[in-house]
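Dock 2-phosphoglycolic acid; give full complex structure.
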Amino acid sequence: MRQKIVAGNWKMNKNLQEGLELAKEIDKLVSGLTNDVKVILAPPFTHITEVKKAVGSKISVSSQNCAAEVSGAYTGEVSASMIKSTGAEYAIIGHSERRQYYGETDAILLKKVKLALANGLKPIFCIGEVLEERESGKHFDVVKSQIVNGVFELTAEEFKNVVLAYEPVWAIGTGKTASSDQAQEMHKFIRETVAAKYGQAVADDTSILYGGSCKASNAKELFANPDVDGGLIGGAALVAAEFLGIITAF
Ligand code: PGA
């Protein structure tokens, strides 16, 4: 059975004290739940160690990125091994903001994915088209090529540790959500793409998250789809009650 997941991507928000406050608030709300949803918090690098200490066993911690090199003279970078040493279990890789603003190519992302896995971190690998690509009908091709180039060099054993997150770029932070049908259509396509490469059993076990203006008020409809296994949440993950509303939307 594939895992249901709700992950909060804090992006570059909250200082350490504010972040700890938010993490503790979420932890308190989540500790009372009996559902089988994996909750993940992805704070900035500077907060990971403290956030990890502040939350209980029901919450896992993720980075928002990791370096494409093992170690050495790469000023400002944070390696997968360093992230792992904080107690984090996941690393978001290939977020559209990294692709768009920091020039992260498929080749760089593949290196990051491999390093994350080699260090025992589970990649949350993001894929998704920009508006122009959707409007010109290229969205399936774009997403497929991001998957093929970003993760299909992995063995099936390695791939089993990958979480995929479909985030249409036009829906991120815009208040525009993909419709429930658009999400399901793409998630189904992604699962078929994974099945063609690694087999149906692996595809059936792969968690595919939706991201892009997902909030408590639309999560229920999105998560009701058979191929939507949860969400990667930006803005709505910064308010504990709203985030809880998403966690309990299944
Ligand atoms: P959003 O961001 O929920 O603020 O649209 C989602 C994401 O970028 O992960």
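Observed: The radius of gyration is 17 Å.
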